[in-house]
Specification:
The chain has one domain (4-162, 218-228). Helix content is 68%, strand content 2%. The chain has 9 helices and 2 strands, in the order E-H-H-H-E-H-H-H-H-H-H.
């Protein structure tokens, strides 16, 4: 299972353009996306291991070390073209000890991103915590980093919950459907999932309005309003 990340929430056209605002943006965006992908993939691996599948554990993926979760091409894609992915977490569903374990393993990644977003929103909502960050000399950095951490993790969570293969949401929905419909849905995603996902992503480059943004934007804004007010 791999985390995928949609278009970056930034206003600049090219990371090669030297601009103080762009530099500041990347100083906050890079750590945010590294932590978001690491937490996402670690959650997949850890939950799979807890349910009996040692595949990811044996490959060293039950780890909070970002280096074992970041895919070089996928990470560069996020930074330079606005779309990328983490290194897929191998899961052998035959080893999972619970009939709905695949649902929990799949949901663990985006659910962890929601949890990270919620935790990072707390200092922004609690004045006493922000005052403490200011007292230790981290106030300005906190005001820049925490909103970006919230935004990136929400983006990763909502995008990966889309019921399109190979995204996590496709596995979750397949497990929630009755057996026959679930099998048909899995087959549909195996045949057309990558094509549909590619068309969604390319819509932002080929059409005046990104269909992907229209789909995920309202959900991201809803959770952002819920967490940040």
């Amino acid at each position: 299972m791999a985390s995928c990340c949609g278009a970056q929430p930034n206003q600049y056209n090219s990371p090669m353009h030297v601009d103080p605002g762009l530099a500041l943006y990347y100083l906050t965006f890079v750590p945010a996306i590294i932590i978001a992908i690491t937490g996402h993939e670690f959650a997949h691996a850890w939950v799979a291991y807890r349910f009996g599948d040692r595949t990811a554990y044996d490959e060293g993926r039950v780890s909070l070390n970002p280096l074992v979760h970041l895919d070089p091409i996928g990470t560069l894609g996020i930074l330079f073209v606005g779309f990328g992915w983490g290194k897929p977490v191998p899961v052998d569903t035959r080893q999972l000890r619970h009939p709905k374990a695949d649902l929990l393993v799949s949901a663990a990644g985006p659910a962890t991103n929601l949890l990270i977003a919620a935790l990072c929103a707390i200092p922004l909502r609690v004045p006493g915590l922000m005052d403490w960050f200011r007292q230790v000399g981290f106030g300005q950095s906190a005001m820049l980093l925490f909103p970006m951490f919230v935004q990136v993790n929400l983006m990763l969570a909502v995008f990966n919950f889309l019921p399109i293969g190979p995204l996590d949401g496709s596995h979750v929905l397949a497990e929630l459907l009755p057996l026959r419909q679930g099998l048909q849905f899995r087959e549909f995603n195996r045949t057309y999932g990558y094509l549909l996902l590619t068309l969604l992503i390319l819509s932002g480059y080929l059409l005046p309005v990104s269909i992907l943004s229209l789909v995920v934007g309202p959900a991201i804004n809803f959770f952002a309003d819920l967490l940040l007010g």
